[in-house]
Amino acid sequence: MKARDYKAAHFLWSVDDDGVATLTLNRPERKNPLTFDSYAEMRDLFRALVHADDCKVVIVTGAGGNFSSGGDVHEIIGPLTEMAMPELLKFTRMTGDLVKAMRGCPQPVIAALDGVCVGAGAIMAMASDLRLATPRTKTAFLFTRVGLAGCDMGACAILPRQIGQGRASELLFTGRVMTADEGERWGFHNRVVDGEVLMETALELARSLAKGPTFAHGITKNQLNVEWDMSLDAAIESEAQAQAICMQTKDFRRAYEAFAAKREPVFEGN
């Protein structure tokens, strides 16, 4: 697959010459809500990125000063109230598959967040590898406020690992807004920057990662995922095997030769 050739139907998608892809949720008049179709298309795209050699990093963001207001009230929430259990389970499994696909693709995913970031939008931010926010960013896992459980799309597994069990419990039980300042102090946001430089900062970070050893980045992401339920001994052995694989790459030799020649290495991802 060539990521730069992909034509998105339900969001904006582009890939620059540095291998940085930008996925933009693009319904700004409604604060970028998700639909059945956009969920499915994003799931399929992130799955396909496993085979996209021309894509090294992905930025997910939203148009119009907001990230996402979550599932569209009229196009998702309303129809869900009329569905039978088999249809409901098919939907909830599909939304969870989006998180699996985001976590499963080898490319680092950077969420560039501004304004509203709630519901499934907050989940997409959570599922990303790195999160940049602005002072305007308001994040809420508001499922209990619509009569649902806080355990949506992996939130009860992932969020406590990011911000701690107690803080995650508070957000998931109450559905209240986590401010940008809280998000940064708690470790959810890697950085809070002015809105005017949000995308510039995200692109700078993405390009620095794209210049790195992208095969090794994929190994790092995989280990961050698979070591969650390993014993320490198993994790250390798994990392030993992963690192031995990386030591056979040409990028490892390129780094050594560059160090010996006192110059910056130029990585090629192999």
From TrEMBL:
<dbReference type="Pfam" id="PF00378">
    <property type="entry name" value="ECH_1"/>
</dbReference>
<dbReference type="InterPro" id="IPR014748">
    <property type="entry name" value="Enoyl-CoA_hydra_C"/>
</dbReference>
<protein>
    <submittedName>
        <fullName>Enoyl-CoA hydratase</fullName>
    </submittedName>
</protein>
<comment type="similarity">
    <text>Belongs to the enoyl-CoA hydratase/isomerase family.</text>
</comment>
<dbReference type="InterPro" id="IPR018376">
    <property type="entry name" value="Enoyl-CoA_hyd/isom_CS"/>
</dbReference>
<dbReference type="InterPro" id="IPR029045">
    <property type="entry name" value="ClpP/crotonase-like_dom_sf"/>
</dbReference>
<dbReference type="InterPro" id="IPR001753">
    <property type="entry name" value="Enoyl-CoA_hydra/iso"/>
</dbReference>
